[in-house]
Design goal:
The protein contains ten helices and eight strands. The protein is α+β, with helices and mostly antiparallel strands and about 260 residues long. The chain has three domains: about 35 residues; about 110 residues, Homing endonucleases (Endonuclease I-creI, Roll), CATH 3.10.28; about 110 residues, Roll (Endonuclease I-creI). Strands 1-2-4-3 form a four-stranded antiparallel beta sheet. A hairpin with a 6-residue loop joins β5 and β6. α4 packs parallel to α7. The radius of gyration is 22 Å and the shape is elongated.
Length: about 260
């Protein structure tokens, strides 16, 4: 490829903020060649995210679909979003779960078409050196300026986004449930029950408001005693059955082990 004046001008426009995916598409040469030409022309790069060159579904949050609603719900429960420095027009989005669900995290990675690696970390419950149980978790992080607008608008706003249409709410709730919900068999009765938890009362109330007409239950919100602030709602056997029927309706994405519990009802 010949580096004409027009190409150099285009490089000046794109190089500072664009992902390597865009740059390599626009300039069909090697990454080193693009960097070399930029350096010679004193064009500085602003995007320096450690994995900003990795591929992902850039338009995932441009419209609300089953996929985007599910992923946002999961992130609300078990995700973390970090803004980069002010001069960097991107955010880092971390997906995480317990080590035992690493296969599920691989599945999430496929859903968002991320080409990076999964890393493993551990921490001591109660703090380092307290002798608490060691918890292992796995995660991957997407650096994306493309997801910035929708996520900053809808993430950690203490309520289910109003922009999500009613026919997609079950996918958002299922995503949240796969992150911070549980379905279990009660030891004494053998009944299958379920619950949702959150550190935000407002978000828990927003979810309960959606689920009350679905389950036909009052769904009182309780505060967990001791430890860090945590709110939860419990669903009895019949309410759990109705939740499952609604939550998995036309479902493509879900945590398999949780769905299997609902099949016992």
């Amino acid at each position: 490829m010949k580096w004409t004046n027009d190409k150099i001008e285009l490089l000046k426009q794109l190089y500072p903020n664009s992902s390597w995916e865009i740059l390599l598409t626009e300039f069909p040469v090697s990454q080193n060649t693009i960097s070399s030409v930029a350096n010679k022309n004193k064009i500085k790069r602003i995007v320096r995210g450690s994995n900003s060159y990795l591929k992902h579904d850039q338009i995932l949050f441009d419209t609300w679909t089953e996929k985007s609603a599910y992923i946002l719900g999961y992130l609300e429960a078990d995700g973390c979003i970090l803004n980069n420095k002010k001069e960097e027009p991107s955010i880092r989005v971390q997906f995480a779960c317990s080590k035992k669900d690493e296969i599920f995290l691989e599945y999430l990675k496929e859903i968002v078409s991320f080409t990076g690696k999964i890393t493993q970390k551990s921490y001591e419950l109660g703090g380092k050196g307290t002798g608490g149980k060691i918890h292992q978790f796995v995660s991957f992080t997407v650096s994306s300026r493309y997801w910035k607008g929708q996520l900053e608008k809808n993430f950690r706003k203490q309520k289910v986004p109003e922009e999500i249409s009613s026919n997609l709410l079950n996918h958002y709730i299922r995503g949240y449930f796969d992150g911070d919900g549980s379905v279990y068999k009660e030891k004494k009765t053998g009944y299958i029950r379920s619950n949702f938890v959150s550190s935000s009362f407002e978000l828990m109330e927003s979810i309960a408001k959606i689920l009350r007409p679905i389950t036909g239950s009052i769904l009182t919100i309780y505060k967990k005693t001791g430890g860090k602030q945590c709110w939860y709602i419990n669903l009895g056997c019949e309410a759990t059955k109705k939740l499952g029927n609604w939550m998995y309706k036309e479902a493509t994405f879900f945590l398999k082990r949780k769905k299997e519990r609902f099949c016992l009802l």
